[in-house]
Amino acid sequence: MKNEYNEDDNERVKQLISRNFKLSISLGLIFLFIILLLPILNEFASDFMLSIVYQNFSVTLIYTALFIFIIGWIIPLYYTLETDKREREYEEES
Amino acid sequence: MTFDNPLAIILVILIVGISVAVTIFSRRFTRTTADFYVAGRGVSAVQNAMALSGDYMSAATFLGIAGLVWLYGYDGIWYSVGFFGGWVLLLLFLASPIRRFGAYTIADFVSGRFHSKKLRLVAMMGTILISVLYIIPQLVGVGDILVILLGWDYATGVIIAGILMTIYVVVGGMKATTYNQIIQCVILWTAMFVTVFLALQQFGFSYNNLLTEVPGFTQPGNWLDFQNSFSLILGLVLGTAGLPHVLIRYYTNPSGKSARWTTVGTLLIIGTFYMMAPIAGFGSRAILGDAGGQNTALPLLAQVLGGEAFLGVVVAAAFAAVLSTVAGLLLATTGAIAHDLYTSLLNPEASEEKQLKVAKLSTVAVGILAIIVGILAQGFNVAFLVGLAFAIAASSFFPVLLIGTWWRGVTEKGALAGLLFGIISSTSIIITNIIGLHGLTSPAILTVPLTFIIIFIVSKIDGKIPPDTDEFMYKVHMPIED
User: Fold this and answer.
1) To probe the interface with A, which of B91, B226, B472 has the most A CB atoms within 10 Å?
2) Is residue B367 in some structural domain?
3) What is the pLDDT of residues B21-49, one digit of tens each?
């Protein structure tokens, strides 16, 4: 694939950026929502967050110390595999 | 100076010896400025993930999170979540574009995007401010553990650690720093794992039994109210994606694809580490009671669990944490002074040899400054201090880099206004909080949205989009293997 920028590529570049941005922003907003929801729930739904799920583990403890980390692995893995796939497709088209 | 724990001394010397050996070995690879700053852009994804993890798992994370959980319980876990979460946004928005741009510093990136000397200068000052704020708690951490656990006086610990770090960055550059950070990553992760293993062993390998011993510490609100916890988490998450010493390491990847896999690997290593750190904190509270310390709960726990031998291991690991992080920060600060100020603004005609000489002299100067400020900052909590550096990065570099990478419409004046506002407003709020004028400990909740708004409004009013914006977008977004 050529490395030099060519004005004829403008439309393709814009389409690619737009597609990639949609993927990044949707995954980014999901993750930010999950992480910022935690202090909000702790404040405004404290009874629910302090309710015990299992033994000494409350909803808030499981959310903070386990759930966020699992989501923080799933989203990056999905994004990386999806982006690798898109780049392979793009290279094959070029 | 006394030597209360000879085994710990031997282990610290061993860590230092390994670092020196690696530095001497790496010296043969550091001939050009590209070798010094970005290891010739030839670091693989696995190596980089381990080096980034070693770089990022600082005294704040190794000592600070366990200390805060020991002190405040649940509220200390915010730092684990925030330090981890930022990497997700870094991957989604910046990892590949930063690498594809292919430069040495963050100022290179903003300057390349907007062709502005003013932006380069402000970005350089921001890099120095954030990096020095980040170096201070590392040195405070090493001073604290050496004074309590080895009987050294605080200043001696800071001076010895500062000199060592400066030497191995000056001699070995990014290559030595990378190899050392990989080794330190293994040491840190293993030390945390063994501590947690031994702590859980005391409770029949049951996390539930451990939590039974810490009533009152497992719910939020012992330290931070809603406003401060929300602002802290926002600052930590967005700040990670704006930290200069983290971002410049992306330049060492061979390609954009490699940069993405580097982040996935880093998330795996630091994620497991940050899941273990709160367990060590709760373990410290359950086993030590009130006899812990905000920066020393972890080593004191290690002493109870594994005697002098394991205390030595944890002290050596903490020393490794400080060495690896400060080395990365020194490289970022050196790049700002030598590359952004000297080579790019003051003497663009400087020879390769001259540039390398200035880079090494800058490292020595920053190393001396860090030692002096580190001695003066005795007594602060390390995770809290690091949180401030994150808040400034979240309010300044993150908005500018995010918008500059994805939005064509941003202009030089918009970026400059945003960067200046972010640095000045977040720093002002931090200082006024420290002197007691208000209770907002982390400014991100105010400064991050305002910085985005300012960049948008000023860019719209200005309207002078750089003429080569399409070319820039092509370079940072197209899947070209560099």
Assistant:
1) B91
2) yes
3) 887 777 666 667 766 766 666 678 888 89
Domain assignment present for residue B429? The answer is no
Place of tokens 């950026």: A17
> How close A88 comes to chain B (CA, Å)?
9
Contact between chains at B211 and A27 (C-beta distance less than 8 A): no
Range of the domain at B94: 6-378
Yes or no, beta carbons of B208 and A55 under 8 Å apart:
yes
In a domain, B475, yes or no: no
* Residue B478: closest C-alpha in chain A: A13
Tell me the three-class secondary structure of B247-315, residue by residue. Answer: HHHHHHCCCHHHHHHHHHHHHHHHHHHHHHHHHHHHHHHHHHHHHCCCCCHHHHHHHHHHHHHHHHHHH
pLDDT digits (tens, 9 = 90+) for B310-365: 888 888 888 877 877 888 888 888 888 888 888 888 888 888 788 888 888 888 99
CB count within 10 Å of CB B124 equals 25
Q: Which two tokens stand for residue A40?
A: 């909000």
Count how many domains chain B has. Answer: 1
CATH of the domain at B363: 1.20.1730.10
Tokens of A38: 């935690």
pLDDT, position B40 = 62
- Residues of chain A in contact with residue B474, where contact means CB-CB under 8 angstroms, are 5, 9, 13
| Pairing relationship of beta strands A57-58 and A52-54 according to DSSP bridges | antiparallel
CA dihedral B351, B352, B357, B359 (to 10 degrees): 110
CB contact at 8 A, B408 and B472: no
How far apart are the C-alpha atoms of A76 and A83, rounded to whole Å?
Answer: 10
Is residue B159 a part of any domain in this protein? yes
Q: For chain A, give every domain's residue range.
A: 14-93
